[in-house]
Amino acid sequence: MTVNRELFDQVMVPNYAPSSVIPVRGEGSRVWDQEGREFIDFAGGIAVNCLGHCHPALVSALKEQGEKIWHLSNVMTNEPALRLAKKLTDATFAEKVYFANSGAEANEAALKLARRFALDNFGEQKSQIISFNKGFHGRTFFTVTVGGQAAYSDGFGPKPGDIVHCDYNDLAAFEALISDSTCAVMMEPLQGEGGIISPTAEFVEGVRELCTKHNALLIFDEVQTGVGRTGELYAYQGLNITPDILTTAKALGGGFPIGAMITTTDIAKHLKVGTHGSTYGGNPLACAVAEAAFDTVNTPEVLNGVKEKSALFRELLTAINEKYNVFTEIRGEGLLIGAVVTEQFKGRAKEFLVAGTAEGVMSLVAGADVVRFTPSLVIPEADIREGMARFEKAVAKVVNG
Ligand SMILES: *Cc1c(COP(=O)(O)O)cnc(C)c1O
Questions:
Q1: Where in the chain is the domain with CATH 3.40.640.10?
Q2: Residue pLDDT, tens place only, 127-139
Q3: Is 104 known as a binding-site position?
Q4: CATH classification of 5-54+300-399, choosing from 3.90.1150.10, 3.20.110.20, 3.40.1160.10, 3.40.50.1100?
Q5: What are 54-77's pLDDT values in tens digits?
């Protein structure tokens, strides 16, 4: 069978438009395609491969678990899931964990839990959910409606109700919206898909205070920021506040699908037996790999390394920009970096990604105006330099047409 990009158009639902490049092998931050062309991976499978491709600790955890026991469902619990849950609770504010298979599912669980918590404690009038324009929380119908881009939730019939939005970093607008009818507030501690937008300290602290005042649960969506991405294990740990519920996925499995919702005992108790569930949630293979990823990332060496690598990324991007003047701003935290294109390239961030692929470097975009970099947290300095040299060639091509 010939497997190529044409086969995609033949057999796949057309909701994606993938590149013509088909990678077949990866090692660390290097990837090779069907033709043997090499790429430096600054995309990390969309902020997922926190330890690059085929990290030895993850490969060995997967092989070991693969020869022990496969799926069990939640009819029986399993050792890897319990070990991972213990580590997640030891390392964070949380006391209880719910496992899912993706970020959207972790968020779906968080939102359902918040609604049930409010119903049990305050009654059914307390159902409003507030979230932020440009926010992204996944593609299930509930999470995409909570997300801050109506274009992604329009056209699928009646939407889940009582969900409102305001601008991120606009505390006055938020204060005007929140009331005792607010059940929960869902936010990213740094907007990822929306364009790599950091919150101000005043905004985060203000949101926390107002949630507490109105008995609304603060849900931090750390699906993209979690597990070391910003240089903290979780981004909230670098802010001056603690959420009530936190969701984590992407980097959690280091490339193996897993998500989790974590919270306190007092809140968790409202998801009683039978209220929510997932066949695959807590799958032993996923949890074994995630445990190995978590152990590897949650060390001072790796987390401090993220801050050092971030500085190098910014320095090299700034140097490219001094030559070509294509970005107005390099922003983000840790290894979640956005380069905002100038007016001249407005709406054309993707051209840099495409040109980069042709030069042998994989990157991402965050919206139409921001080139996004989410490499492995342990990417070697030499790969950062080589990838940036390739990216510079891509920038030159875009500039010179
Ligand atoms: C990617 C992402 C999601 C969705 O995760 P999936 O695994 O695609 O369902 C949710 N929230 C944030 C902040 C994300 O970046």
A1: 57-297
A2: 999 999 999 999 9
A3: yes
A4: 3.90.1150.10
A5: 999 999 999 999 999 999 999 999
